[in-house]
Amino acid sequence: xxxxxxxxxxxxxxxxxxxxxxxxxxxxxxxxxxxxxxxxxxxxxxxxxxxxxxxxxxxxxxxxxxxxxxxxxxxxxxxxxxxxxxxxxxxxxxxxxxxxxxxxxxxxxxxxxxxxxxxxxxxxxxxxxxxxxxxxxxxxxxxxxxxxxxxxxxxxxxxxxxxxxxxxxxxxxxxxxxxxxxxxxxxxxxxxxxxxxxxxxxxxxxxxxxxxxxxxxxxxxxxxxxxxxxxxxxxxxxxxxxxxxxxxxxxxxxxxxxxxxxxxxxxxxxxxxxxxxxxxxxxxxxxxxxxxxxxxxxxxxxxxxxxxxxxxxxxxxxxxxxxxxxxxxxxxxxxxxxxxxxxxxxxxxxxxxxxxxxxxxxxxxxxxxxxxxxxxxxxxxxxxxxxxxxxxxxxxxxxxxxxxxxxxxxxxxxxxxxxxxxxxxxxxxxxxxxxxxxxxxxxxxxxxxxxxxxxxxxxxxxxxxxxxxxxxxxxxxxxxxxxxxxxxxxxxxxxxxxxxxxx
Length: 503
Description:
This protein is α+β, with helices and mostly antiparallel strands. It has helices at residues 9-12, 24-27, 34-37, 51-66, 70-75, 83-104, 110-118, 131-142, 149-169, 177-182, 201-204, 210-219, 247-271, 275-281, 304-317, 352-388, 393-399, 419-426, 459-493, and strands at 43-44, 47-48, 124-125, 128-129, 190-198, 229-238, 287-292, 330-332, 335-345, 403-410, 440-442, 445-454, 496-497, 500-501. The protein is built from 19 helices and 14 strands. The strands form five sheets. A four-stranded antiparallel sheet has the order 10-5-12-11. Strands 7-6-9-8 form a four-stranded antiparallel sheet. Strands 1-2 form a two-stranded antiparallel ribbon. A hairpin with a 2-residue loop joins strand 3 and strand 4. Residues 1-39 have low confidence and may be disordered.
C-alpha cells in the first residue's frame, strides 16, 4: 500500500513496534481448488482462466479471510462447510463480482481503498490507524510468503465492490407491518401435544441385497477409489520452544528462519542435490513423515506433532509433480519447512469387495430413513383417521406405538427454551389451534405436534426484540436479492470446464 500512502511517508518512518500475529492457519494454509486445478483452462466470459489466475484468486481468498472480510466471504460462498467447495464458489463469484463492477462503473478509487485499509481493526491502535502494525503485517506475514501490498489492496477493492453492488441490488428490500406482526408468533407461548416416534431396530437394520450392492458399484465405478497418499522428508525451521519474542525481535527472528529455509531451497536448485544431501551439508536434521492424504490424515501415525505437520504441509505436497520433487519454503505459524516427496501412492479403483462395506452402509442408512419416514407417515395418517372416528389423541397414539407428551406455555423465542422445545414449537408456527403438523425429523426419530393453544405475546419482550427482528428480516431479504442477482450473473458469465458446464 506504500504507493497509496505517499502522502503519509513521514508517518511511515515510525519504528516497527509490537504486532499480534494473526491466523497463520488461514493465511498460509494453501489448499488449492482441486476441481479447477485438475482442469485445463476453464472458461468464464469467453476467456480461459489460467492456473496463474486461479492461484492469484486462491491467495486473495486466504488474505480475505485473514483480514476478517467475512461479509465478502459469506456473500460469495467462501464460508461453505467443505473447504474445496468454499474456494471454488469464492473464485467464480469473485470474478463475476469484479466483472459486474467494471460493467456498472462502480470501481473503487485509490482513496477509497486507502481509507478502507486505514480503518481495518487489524491496523488500529485504539481508534487510530497504526502504521507500525501495518508495516509489521507486511514484513511478517506478506513478504515471507510472496504476498504483496497490492494483493492486500485488491482484497479491499473487492470488499468495496461488494458494498457498492449490494447497495444497488438490495435496494428494493423492505418489510411490511403485516410481516412484522406475523413474527410475533415466536413470542406467543405455545401449549401443544407432541407425538413422538422413536427409531426401532426394525427400521435401523433394513435389509440390503448383494445384487443391490453390485448394481450400485457397476453404475458408479468412477466414484469408488482409494485416496492418493504421499510421504515426505522435511526440514523444520522454528523458534526455540517457549520463545516469547514480540514485535521487532520476533520479526527479525522469523526473517532469519525464512532466510535459512531459503538457503536450503537454493542449494537444492543450484546444486541439483536432494533435500537429504542439502540438509546434511548444512548440518540439519531430516524428519520423516509417513504417508498422508490431501487433508493430512495418516493411517499409520498417531503422534500429535506429526499430525499437525502433515496437515500443514499436505496442501503444498499435493501440488508437487511427484516423487523426488522438492518444495519451496512453506510457512505454518512461526515455523518454516522445506520438504521432498519420498513416496507417492496414487489413487486406484476399488474392487467390489473393497467398496462393499461403504456401499452397504450407505444403502442401509438410506433404506432405514425411507422405511422410518413411510412408517411414521402411515402412523400419523392412521392417527388422524382415528381422531375423526371419535378416538382421543392418547388412544390413537397408543394404537400406533407413538408416545404422547405435553408442552405447556413454551415461548419459541425464549432464551431458556431447550433445543428440543425450539424444534417442536417451530413446527407450530403455521398451525391453527386444533391442527396437527406433518411429520418432522428429530434426533430421536420423528414427531408431529397438535397445537392446543397459543397465548398472547408479551408486548415487552416483543418490543425489546422488534429492532433486531426488523434488522434480521431485512438482512435476509437483502441476502436473497443478492443471491438471485449473483445466480443470474453467473449464468451470463457462461462458466464452462471440459466435460462440464455450470452457471
